[in-house]
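INFO batch 0412 | record 1 of 1 | parsing
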Amino acid sequence: MATEPDDELVIVVPPAHQAGVWANDAIVNSSDHEVTVDLLRVDHSVEPNVGTVVARVAMSPKLLRQLIDELTDAWDDYVGEVTRRLIDDPPGGPDGDDPKIE
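INFO prediction complete | emitting tokens
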């Protein structure tokens, strides 16, 4: 992926996409030559549940591997930061007996 320091890539987000989308589910379909990821927003307030595709991305298996690696790194960083915060400021206070309401 183009995240190396010596790579120069100007990324332009069209105005229609700047707000992004919310997804709470995903479906992955694959073949020998491509992988398609459908990101869904599932409405659990109706029966039957309705899933609306909010984004569909088709990619090569090579890009999928790179994406998995990038997401793994981001997840590891997130978990490390949350863990550090919990160690520095435990939910029950330093003695564990004065719960905070946030």
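INFO post-check: The two ends are 38 Å apart (CA to CA).
INFO record closed
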